């Protein structure tokens, strides 16, 4: 039986008043058969980790350097010290804001050096999908976004840009093709045990079908992670599925 990994990405949402939501989500995950992480804004990491020690708290980006003259930036080690245990990197919203593959690879190295577990996001645009190039694009992006040296604890999140915040999810055939492509890259890099998540318009209703697939190890959830009731429903659906006999443990 696998341990599904459900990750909430709050993006740039949440202030101190939202710590109640962190506590509510922590209450929904106090079971051993599932891994849940909540990636909150940097300003909430310390407080979230303090009030919810049983919940894995994550960050959403970091600088690639360990220290230096980088005004306004935050290093991976600073985020870890604040209480982050995982780090989303390469999200399409950060890539759209200027991160290229080389930046992402350097950030992955920095986060791994700081002892953080990385959730590396990849995904094709609508135009690339329409060209039938989704798998090739994602493979190329993943290859270029991985640093030379990799340590354990890597997770890849397949997030098609056209599915984020749009209420659409790729067909099972589309997901299979891209996820197979991702796994072939991971095998070539000797990290075949890395988990692969799906992200993009995940809802409680879609959770069961997505997690019933044997090639997806979990979900990266945006909007539906903002409300504890909705996110708890997703977590509950995932817990229900851990009772199914899933053939490929990946931990
Ligand atoms: O970008 C995402 C998670 O990182 C997905 O966002 P939505 O779930 O809101 O589509």
Order of adjacent strands in the largest pleated sheet? 1-2-3-4-5-6-7-8
Ligand inventory = 1,3-dihydroxyacetonephosphate
Q: Average pLDDT, to the nearest integer? A: 93
Q: Give me the secondary-structure category.
A: alpha/beta
Distance between the termini: 10 Å
Rounded to an integer, what's the Rg over CA atoms? 17 Å
The major pleated sheet works out as:
8 strands, parallel, barrel
Strand and helix order: EHEHEHEHHEHHEHEHEH
Annotation field: number of helices: 10
Q: Strand content of the residues, in percent?
A: 15-25%
Q: Architecture of the domain at 5-11 and 21-37 and 47-56 and 99-110 and 121-241, according to CATH?
A: Alpha-Beta Barrel
Characterize the quaternary organization of these chains.
single chain
Globally, the shape reads globular
List low-pLDDT spans.
Answer: 245-251
CATH topology name of the domain at 5-11 and 21-37 and 47-56 and 99-110 and 121-241? TIM Barrel
CATH class of the domain at 5-11 and 21-37 and 47-56 and 99-110 and 121-241: Alpha Beta
According to DSSP, the number of beta strands is 8
């Amino acid at each position: 039986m696998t341990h599904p990994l459900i990750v909430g990405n709050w993006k740039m949402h949440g202030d101190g008043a939202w710590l109640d939501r962190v506590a509510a989500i922590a209450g929904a995950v106090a079971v051993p058969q599932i891994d849940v992480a909540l990636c909150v804004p940097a300003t909430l990491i310390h407080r979230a980790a303090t009030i919810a020690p049983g919940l894995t708290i994550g960050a959403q980006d970091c600088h690639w350097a360990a220290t230096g003259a980088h005004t306004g930036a935050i290093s991976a080690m600073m985020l870890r010290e604040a209480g982050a245990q995982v780090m989303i990197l390469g999200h399409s919203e950060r890539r759209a804001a200027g991160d290229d593959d080389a930046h992402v690879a350097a950030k992955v190295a920095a986060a791994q050096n700081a002892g953080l577990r990385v959730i590396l996001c990849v995904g094709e645009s609508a135009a690339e999908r329409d060209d039938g190039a989704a798998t090739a694009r994602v493979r190329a992006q993943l290859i270029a976004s991985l640093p030379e040296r990799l340590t354990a604890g890597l997770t890849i999140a397949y997030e098609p840009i056209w599915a984020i915040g749009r209420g659409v999810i790729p067909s099972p055939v589309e997901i299979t093709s891209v996820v197979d492509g991702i796994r072939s890259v991971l095998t070539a890099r000797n990290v075949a045990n890395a988990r692969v998540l799906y992200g993009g318009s995940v809802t409680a209703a879609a959770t069961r079908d997505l997690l019933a697939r044997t090639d997806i190890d979990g979900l990266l959830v945006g909007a539906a992670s903002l409300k504890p009731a909705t996110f708890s429903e997703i977590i509950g659906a995932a817990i229900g599925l851990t009772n199914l006999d899933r053939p490929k443990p990946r931990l």
